[in-house]
Amino acid sequence: MEMRSDHGAEPSFRVMPWWLVLSGFVLAIVFGLAVTWWLWNIADAGGPSRAALRIDAIRTGLTVVAGTGGAVGLLLVGRRQWLNERTQQHREQVDATNRAHQERVQAHVESTAAAERAARDRAMEISEYDATERRVTDLFAKAVEHLGSDTAPVRLGGVYALERLAHNNERYRHATADVLCAYLRMPVRREVVDEDHVRLAIQRIVTRRIRSGPDSWPGLRLDLADAQLHGLDASGCDFNDVDFTGSTFSGVTIFDDCRFHGEARFGGATFLGEASLKRTHWHVPADFSGAAWQSTVSFAESVFEQHARFDNGRFGDQRISFRETTFRHTVTFDHSRFDGETTFGRAGFESNASFEHVDFGDAVSFRGAVFGHITMFRRSVFTGPVDFSGARLEHSTAFDRVDFVGGVTFDPVPMERASAERTRADARSIRQLPTGWVEYPLDDQWVGLRPNS
User: Fold this and answer.
1) Please, what's the b/e burial string for 291-310 (b: 16 or more CB within 10 A of its CB; e: otherwise)?
2) Residue 28: predicted pLDDT
3) Which of 141, 151, 330, 401 is at 20 to 30 A from 307, Cα to Cα?
4) Are the CB atoms for 265 and 243 separated by under 8 Å?
């Protein structure tokens, strides 16, 4: 009898009892006897052929018994064959299950061994990392301690040790840059011999590591606010984020061919010596508001992609150059003072430009400059001669309340959309006005200028 176990398992089979087989054969004999008896009764009514009919009845009964017994035997043989096949199938399933189980056991053993190896390797890596970190931390701490020495060679040794340590361990580069910048932000120790050599070495390390090349440290943020910098040569550097707010630059300062990709803050900085920022490229806003320039300064051929602020700037009596400088965004020089000869020759102002309340103390040249948008010169004073020859003022331009003390030169062509309310010029100066502008007397010293409406 077939039975099915719980949870969908394979069915189990019971052994066929002996009495069931015996019952089958007894049933066959009984069925044969019944057929023989039935045919025997029919033969009795057969008349003269009764004997032959009885013989046929007996033969038929025996045939039925033999047939029924054979059917039972065939059924038993078929069942045995089916059981053999089921047994073979079960054996194959058991073998497959055993093989799968062995494979799972082997895989588990291998995975366990791999996990143990990985754990040992990880523990070894952690141990090596901890040992390395302790060693590097100790070296870093000792190098920093050397910076506090009163002996210049010891401080220099600490500086170069920090550089080597940071170059070989990238995680310490930002910390090293912060330490070196902090040293430059500290007051100069004049009482210490060779202090300038130490600071110069730090400047060279910092600038070397932000120049493009295989030895560069990309992504450094330099906090040099209120730093004391002497003879800084940062030519060709790529500044990611730099803060020079309130810093003092002495000696010759060079930023030629630099690129500024992050924030660049020079607000309130003081340049005591010559400053060269030629061909610099500013991809971010540049803030020079409140900066003081006491010597020659040049931004020639530089490009400002974003807002440039030079408000409240103080430019000394040396030459100031913005020749061929390109301002692609708004630039403001409001409330600044230019004491030296200044040139914006062939400069490109592609957006708004503001020179309001500016005091130009010497000659100023805007020769060939292009003003592509709104330009403001309101309330500015040009003490020296100012030259707009070849300049293109293509949008609204305001010269309201401007004083041209040293004379002014414009091309004799019409100037569209220009205003000059209460604008005046020294009566003794040379004046070449745009076509359509007129003069009118104010007093013995001044003449008024305005477009002829």
Assistant:
1) bbbbbbbbbbbbbbbbbbbb
2) 67
3) 401
4) yes
Q: Which has more pLDDT, 222 or 71?
A: 222
Rounded CA-CA distance 281/301 in Å is: 9
SS (H, E, C) the chain: CEECCHHHCCCEECCCCHHHHHHHHHHHHHHHHHHHHHHHHHHHCCHHHHHHHHHHHHHHHHHHHHHHHHHHHHHHHHHHHHHHHHHHHHHHHHHHHHHHHHHHHHHHHHHHHHHHHHHHHHHHHHHHHHHHHHHHHHHHHHHHHHCCCCCHHHHHHHHHHHHHHHHHCHHHHHHHHHHHHHHHHCCCCCCCCCHHHHHHHHHHHHHHHCECCCCCCCCCEEECCCCEEECCECCCEEECEEECCCCEEECCEECCCCEECCCEECCCCEECCCEECCCCEECCCEECCCCEECCCEECCCCEECCCEECCCCEECCCCEECCCCEECCCEECCCCEECCCEECCCCEECCCEECCCCEECCCEECCCCEECCCEECCCCEECCCEECCCCEECCCEECCCCEECCCEECCCCECCCEECCCEEEECCCCEECCECEEEEECCCCEEEEEECC
Phi-psi group of 167: left, alpha or beta (phi > 0 → left; psi -120 to 50 → alpha; rest → beta): alpha
% of the chain with per-residue pLDDT over 70 = 86
What would the mean pLDDT of 87-108 be, rounded to a whole number? 86
CB atoms within 10 A of CB 100: 10
Q: Which tens digits make up the pLDDT trace of 214-267?
A: 889 988 999 999 999 999 999 999 999 999 999 999 999 999 999 999 889 999
Cα gap 62→17, rounded to integer Å:
27
- Confidence band (pLDDT; 50, 70, 90) for 9? low
What is the rounded average pLDDT for all residues in the chain? 87
Sheet holding 418-419, edge to edge: 221-223, 241-243, 264-265, 286-287, 308-309, 331-332, 353-354, 375-376, 397-398, 418-419
Is the pLDDT assigned to residue 131 strictly greater than 80? Answer: no
123: Cα separation from own chain's centroid? 32
Q: Give the start-to-end residue ranges of the domains of the chain.
A: 2-112, 223-451
pLDDT value of position 13: 57
**pTM reported for the whole predicted model:** 0.72
Hey, how many other C-beta atoms are within 10 angstroms of the C-beta on 25? 14
